[in-house]
TrEMBL record:
<dbReference type="InterPro" id="IPR020846">
    <property type="entry name" value="MFS_dom"/>
</dbReference>
<feature type="transmembrane region" description="Helical">
    <location>
        <begin position="309"/>
        <end position="328"/>
    </location>
</feature>
<feature type="region of interest" description="Disordered">
    <location>
        <begin position="472"/>
        <end position="508"/>
    </location>
</feature>
<feature type="transmembrane region" description="Helical">
    <location>
        <begin position="348"/>
        <end position="367"/>
    </location>
</feature>
<feature type="transmembrane region" description="Helical">
    <location>
        <begin position="440"/>
        <end position="461"/>
    </location>
</feature>
<dbReference type="GO" id="GO:0022857">
    <property type="term" value="F:transmembrane transporter activity"/>
</dbReference>
<feature type="transmembrane region" description="Helical">
    <location>
        <begin position="266"/>
        <end position="289"/>
    </location>
</feature>
<feature type="transmembrane region" description="Helical">
    <location>
        <begin position="194"/>
        <end position="215"/>
    </location>
</feature>
<protein>
    <submittedName>
        <fullName>MFS general substrate transporter</fullName>
    </submittedName>
</protein>
<feature type="transmembrane region" description="Helical">
    <location>
        <begin position="413"/>
        <end position="434"/>
    </location>
</feature>
<keyword id="KW-1133">Transmembrane helix</keyword>
<feature type="compositionally biased region" description="Basic and acidic residues">
    <location>
        <begin position="472"/>
        <end position="485"/>
    </location>
</feature>
<comment type="similarity">
    <text>Belongs to the major facilitator superfamily.</text>
</comment>
<feature type="domain" description="Major facilitator superfamily (MFS) profile">
    <location>
        <begin position="39"/>
        <end position="465"/>
    </location>
</feature>
<feature type="transmembrane region" description="Helical">
    <location>
        <begin position="106"/>
        <end position="125"/>
    </location>
</feature>
<feature type="transmembrane region" description="Helical">
    <location>
        <begin position="37"/>
        <end position="61"/>
    </location>
</feature>
<dbReference type="Pfam" id="PF07690">
    <property type="entry name" value="MFS_1"/>
</dbReference>
């Protein structure tokens, strides 16, 4: 047993349960590689299905509009984007609950909600019903954006998180890359309702797979369970986990604090600025996705069945941005750590140079499409844009989980809310943008807006640490101070409590 038992009452320091030193095999950092690989593999599959469903109906929208007897382009765009609005709403509930009950119960509940709502979409009797079901399917699938990065951070040491995040980021991008092509072929062969049947089957398969493969990774929940187990075996009702001692164990207080945490984080400069620029890139991505069929059908005369191939340029760029970003990010963190620089802001360094690719790619896409240059021209533009936009999402995610280890789910929720709101609403004004401006100037306008925000990553890198020290987005603990290298732990008043050795950062 890691903590000696004494007779000092329920507030006695001898009743604090902690990890058993550096080699504690029950800490997620020290789990066997095979166990981690199975968990990450399951999260990988979940992370494919969710974004796959977001855009798989895009090629079938004309048929859906015909069946529901409407030609309203705004309704058409809304049916597509309402799923992404679910991404914005879901994390506001999912993330706080995960900080009370852990990641795994929320994964299972959300998987079931996603599967049922997606299946019911095929039987919707009106466009309103379809939009409502799509929204709740998006809420259910938002767990992969709200919780997966946090689950990775729970298991993987900081110096290697970039590579692990890159694996999940590939999954995030495989979905949008494959779904338009898959959707167009399913629609042509069996009709648009079978698109929902297929995605529901995928969701059901992942739901069943997750039951045996997912293990709880959240440190406060694991320590709480450990304390409860030891309390039963020893008959000592006063045992409490170290983190419950530091931040409290009252469930109502934890939940109420966690519920407002994402919104409070959105008011923190270190979070809101970098999340805003990421949200802009995400919004432009959905505008691009909503206009690709028009460009390649009308300008280049592609057959409807092949229109899904128009998305491959962006998919390749997304993949390059994620893989390269993961390697560069980890290399920078390791090099800085060797110089005793452990600031989470080091994750933002590559973003300073990669964000301008967003503007460059949009300009290339807009003007090559405007002048009907060979179709490879717009493809190159979307690839360059994808590399810049998706790498920004990647760097933002790794920064948040490094800067706020115990509240990473709330941080990712804050990022997801802002990103999904802009991503969900942006396509709604894409049609107006096209009507007022030609494709060249429309995407040039988006490019100029993107380039105007180019200094933000440098500003956050330069001043982020100073801002974080002044922020009160939550009760910090010594866990966060160790992770972020903060000079003055906010839990200093508890330093008088004798603790067992803090868990070490074993190799992954």
């Amino acid at each position: 047993m890691d903590v000696p038992l004494g007779n000092r009452g329920d507030s006695g320091v001898d009743n604090v349960v902690d990890w058993e030193g550096e080699g504690d095999r029950t800490h997620p950092f020290n789990w066997p590689k095979r166990k981690k690989a199975l968990i990450i593999g399951c999260l990988f599959l979940m992370s494919i299905v969710s974004p796959f469903t977001s855009s798989v109906i895009a090629p079938a929208l004309p048929n859906i509009m015909i069946d529901y007897k409407t030609s309203n382009q705004y309704l058409s765009s809304f049916v597509l984007s309402v799923y992404v609005l679910g991404y914005a709403a879901g994390p506001l509930l999912i993330s706080p609950l995960s900080e009370l009950y852990g990641r795994v119960p929320l994964y299972h509940i959300c998987n079931v909600v996603f599967t049922i709502c997606t299946w019911r979409c095929a039987y919707s009797t009106s466009l309103r019903d379809l939009a409502i079901l799509r929204f709740f399917a998006g809420v259910g699938s938002s767990s992969v954006f709200a919780l997966v990065p946090s689950s990775i951070a729970d298991m993987v040491v900081k110096e290697k998180r970039g590579a692990a995040f890159a694996v999940i980021a590939i999954a995030y991008n495989l979905g949008p890359a494959l779904s338009p092509t898959a959707g167009s072929y399913i629609n042509a062969a069996w009709g648009w309702k079978w698109i929902f049947h297929v995605t529901a089957i995928m969701g059901g398969a992942v739901t069943l797979l997750a039951i045996p493969l997912l293990w709880e990774t959240y440190e406060p929940v694991l320590l709480r369970r450990k304390a409860q187990k030891q309390s039963k075996s020893t008959g000592n009702p006063h045992l409490r986990s170290r983190l419950d001692v530091e931040v409290g164990s009252n469930k109502l207080k934890i939940l109420s604090r966690a519920m407002v945490m994402p919104l409070r984080m959105l008011l923190a400069p270190s979070i809101v600025l970098i999340c805003f620029i990421t949200a802009v890139g995400y919004g432009w991505l959905y505008i691009l996705y909503s206009t690709l069929p028009v460009t390649f059908l009308t300008t280049y005369g592609w057959a409807p069945k092949k229109i899904g191939l128009a998305y491959l340029g962006a998919a390749v760029g997304n993949l390059i941005g994620m893989v390269a970003g993961g390697g560069i990010s980890d290399a920078i963190v390791k090099r800085k750590a060797a110089k005793s620089d452990h600031r989470p802001e080091n994750r933002l360094l590559p973003m300073i140079f990669m964000w301008p690719l967003v503007g460059v790619g949009l300009i290339i896409y807009g003007w090559t499409a405007h002048y009907a240059v060979h179709w490879i021209g717009p493809m190159i533009g979307t690839a360059i844009f994808g590399a810049g936009a998706m790498s920004a999402i990647f760097f933002t995610g790794t920064y948040i989980v490094d800067a706020y280890p115990l509240h990473s789910a709330s941080g990712m929720a804050a990022s997801s809310v802002l990103r999904s709101l802009i991503g969900g609403l942006a396509p709604l004004f894409a049609t107006k943008l096209y009507q007022k401006l030609n494709v060249g100037w429309a995407f040039s306008l988006l490019a100029f807006i993107s380039l105007a925000f180019a200094p933000i990553p440098w500003v956050c890198y330069r001043y982020g640490e100073k801002w974080r020290r002044k922020e009160r987005v939550g009760e910090r603990t010594d866990v966060e101070d160790r992770e972020t290298g903060a000079a003055e732990p906010a839990g200093a008043e508890l330093d008088s409590l004798p603790r067992t050795n803090e868990v070490g950062r074993a190799e992954v």
